[in-house]
Amino acid sequence: MVQARVTVDRDFTLGPVPRRLFGSFVEHMGRCVYTGVVEPGHPEADAAGLRRDVLELTRELGVSVVRYPGGNFVSGYDWEDGVGPVEERPRRLDGAWHTVEPNTFGLHEFVDWARLAGVEVMEAVNLGTRGVSEARALLEYANHPGGTELSDRRRRNGAEEPFGIKLWCLGNEMDGPWQIGFKTADEYGRLAAEAARAMRMVDDDLELVACGSSNLSMPTFGAWEETVLTHTYDLVDYISLHVYYSDRDGDAESFLASAVDMDRFIEAVVATADFVRARDRHTKTMYLSFDEWNVTYRHDPARPAVPEAEITRGWDEHPPIGEGDFDVTEGVVVGTLLSSLLRHGDRVKIANQAQLVNLLGMIRTQEGGPAWRQTVFFPFAAMAAAAAGEILRLAVTSDRATTARYGEADLVDVSGTWDAGSGRLALFLANRSLAEDAEVDVALRGLVPGEVLSARVLAAPEGGDRFSVNSAEAQPVGLVDWDGASVVDGGLAVRLPALSWAVVEIAVTAA
Ligand code: AHR
């Protein structure tokens, strides 16, 4: 039996839960937009072709903000192609994903979708093939009330009121050789600074995100952030991080410890940003936008994801890139990645799970068929709903495991929030052990527990195992009520099944 002890002290908090931690991402890639978000003629489509079943699941997820339109796609994208009468929009080659982009879905359609989904728009500008002028023009088109050629073009295109988009990404993964128009840190830093200056001249009420490294293993990691922030520190509000974890080599123990790596990644970027702040005598705090994060599918010949190499050779429209079924293990890892983001909510203010539909999606759809919840849907929806009030700075001691990829890792992973207003304590716990249950002893300081309001667990389903998945035909995996949490001696006793992620909500009063 794995043993762990958690101390919750109501005075040890990190600050309010940033709602934007529960963001996602919609890119013109694979079937995320076409036959994911929009599918004219589908039985669930509304008059504009938006899939109502996907909208409903997006609302159920509690997604707060959605990044659009890419990703690598944005670095070759001309935003003008996606506005105006649909029948006049050009079909274009998209070099990033080797597909044909029909441009029948663009900025207006996305803003309409976002309003229906109840999410904030996070718009990316193309700093790959384009630059300051086009970034400024897109902003004017989107946000200026009227009386100029660009803003009046928006009005003629059906949007009388400005879109009011506050949050903008200055390009995407500009350090990556795969990126159309990728740049050195100095080239990008200068361009991002100039774009930021020009955009703030059009609209001074913006929040801007500069590109950090594409992942922690980029050879330029660290130096890239330092150089980019040297150019942009006073002009931007966030530096971005991206990561995708997978059980690609069958080392499940390492995969389960992915959040240990995410913790280190975040702390390394915070340290680099704070170094630039100290060295250059800045006063403001640089925040982090983790605007792409997720797990990818375990390599398993018996469970093939659509191989990218095969489907990206043609010039097809919306080929099914990067689709597959997430299993229970991947659901548990996503729960721990969400906990890592929450534990760093004093510096990580935005996070976007990538991507919302089909491609590594929390939601999957069939063209002409149903939409359903993947395993990774459940921890996201549960945490978005239960995390409220203040993030707790928890003291955790746990039995540990040594992993090949990330070294020592606690077998029990925990994060939590306390909402004084509603009197709710929420704990998000994972047991990383593949074989043993875990006993978690939770001590409360300054809080008196009432009843356990809800306790739900994501684990291997009845008759299944950690490789169980949901599909169009059957959805055996989900969060289920479980009786593993009870109030004992002014604290809590929690018993987690092997390989599980759980959310426990307890009524508490301040002592
Ligand atoms: O999310 C898929 C792709 O992964 C994005 O387009 C890119 O930014 C990242 O490398």
What is the fold named in CATH at topology level of the largest domain?
TIM Barrel
Largest sheet: 8 strands, parallel, barrel
The pLDDT mean sits at 96
Report the helical percentage: 10-25%
**Order of strands, widest sheet:** 3-4-7-8-9-10-11-12
SS strand fraction? 25-35%
Broad shape: globular
- Structural class per helix/strand content? alpha/beta
The distinct bound ligands, ions and cofactors come out as: alpha-L-arabinofuranose
Alpha-carbon distance between the two ends:
32 Å
Q: How many individual helices? A: 11
Rg (C-alpha, Å) = 23 Å
CATH-derived architecture of the largest domain: Alpha-Beta Barrel
CATH domain class name of the largest domain: Alpha Beta
Tally the beta strands: 26
Question: Uncertain segments of ≥5 residues (pLDDT<50)?
Answer: none
Number of domains: 2
How would you name the CATH homologous superfamily of the largest domain?
Glycosidases
List the helices and strands and how they pair.
Elements: E1 2-9, E2 13-16, E3 23-25, H1 52-61, E4 65-68, E5 92-94, E6 99-101, H2 107-117, E7 120-125, H3 132-143, H4 149-156, E8 167-170, H5 185-202, E9 207-210, H6 223-232, E10 238-245, H7 252-256, H8 258-279, E11 287-295, H9 308-311, H10 328-343, E12 348-354, E13 363-365, E14 371-373, H11 377-386, E15 390-392, E16 395-398, E17 400-403, E18 407-410, E19 412-419, E20 424-431, E21 438-445, E22 447-458, E23 480-481, E24 485-488, E25 491-496, E26 500-510
Parallel strand pairs: 1-21, 3-4, 3-12, 4-7, 7-8, 8-9, 9-10, 10-11, 11-12
Antiparallel strand pairs: 1-16, 2-15, 5-6, 13-14, 15-19, 17-18, 19-20, 20-26, 21-25, 22-23, 22-26, 24-25
Helix pairs in contact: 3-4, 3-5, 5-6, 6-8, 8-10, 10-11
The structure holds alpha-L-arabinofuranose.
